[in-house]
Amino acid sequence: MHIKNIKLKLTDISRHNYLWILIILLALFLRIYGLDLNPVGLSHDDELHEILNAKSLALTGLHKPGTVAGIFTQNNQCLGNCVYGELGSYILIPWMLIFPLDLFWSKIPFVLASLGIVFFTGKLFENLSNNSKIGLLAGLAVAINPWAIHFGRTAYLTTFSYLFYILGAYFFTRRKFLKSNLVLGSFSSIIGSMFYFGTKPILPLIIIWGIIYNPLSLKLRHIKFTLVLLSTIGLLIGLYLVILSNSYAGRRLNEITATDPVAIKREVDDQRQKTLEIPLLRDLAINKYIFGANLRIEKYLGFFSPTFLFLKSTGDTDIYYNSNHGYFYLIDIPFLIFGIMALTGRLRTGIFVLSLILLSVAPAAIKTTGDTVYALRTALAYPLISGVIAWGIYYCYKNLLVFKRLFIILIIGVYIFSLGYFLIMYW
Questions:
Q1: Stretch 248-260: mean pLDDT
Q2: Residue 147 CA: distances (Å) to CA of 17, 114, 152
Q3: Model's pTM, two decimal places?
Q4: Averaged pLDDT, 26-42
Q5: Which residues touch 246 (CB under 8 Å, ≥6 apart)?
Q6: Which of 81, 117, 226, 235 is buried most, with the most CB atoms less than 10 Å from its CB?
Q7: Which residues of 46-56 are buried (b: 16+ CB within 10 A; e: fewer)?
Q8: Mean pLDDT across the chain, nearest whole number?
Q9: How confident is the model over 101-120, as a mean pLDDT?
């Protein structure tokens, strides 16, 4: 009997691995087919600058003129939007040394990073649910997610940033408490923050989330290590901010207050004119600070708009996404609801999963101008929401008393139709 149990366990592991291979192959095909044709060219200067700068570093050891890699370079001659994350160009150097500079080969590292998001999102939700089937479904959901497909075919460095953040969350949620998990989770998150400036606000939030997630990290026998780790990370972040604020790259800090002061003054004056003139109270209730706070709240809550997520995304054709289609499929809506219902049955896990999604949207409240707020800066939320959708599919299947096979056939059919519809619009 013991040998039979071992054989059954090995069979399950083998089947599990085969399924992962199929998911990765599907994700690879959706991201690599016609990669040099769609998206057309390199549609944004972020993509172009980083790839050319990486090639320049690979061939000459020097940065391309007019490009600043965060705090690693000092270049007062760059004009316009020329300050990029610290690690973006450097991580591409080995690839650029070997492969030619063209639309296909230059994007392959980003395809591989996207595949990493597929795999580690699945592993993250396997940790959170303690269920390998939910992990597989989460990986599959990300593999066919419209957002993930598109950005896996672009050269935006946010893909690397979110890969390392998800890798950090994966380490934080491993079942056994090991000090190495906290260190690896923190290290991965720090690396993730150094690819794209817009994702840096997530760093302290995800580290605190990860440490609190494992209650053993706050036990008396581990508290000293936890405090030392938090203090070290706090010092590193503080040191980075000091160096950044005193470098040319520190101009990116202006994005925190990136608002139009003239427009705000006009709006405040307009609201005051339409309000009863009550001495002191009116000015306390209507001023630029209140207006600015409301604007940031509006940006943050705007991410959760069903129209934005499931129908039209940004609503106009832009360089960041195919705006004729939502970031998710319409069929995802009921399963997202069922996923949240499933999480309510596991209160602690549910709180941590939903809080991780909420903190991943934090960059939306930092920058209130421009059209990249949702497309690039909050994109960590999309694989996480896909994981909740996968959980909802599994929840429905497990709670069905009859017609389970029919349910599977219908789900597969509807998602094939949805994916096909997206691909027709995308191409």
A1: 65
A2: 25, 11, 8
A3: 0.90
A4: 87
A5: none
A6: 117
A7: bbebbbbbbbb
A8: 83
A9: 92
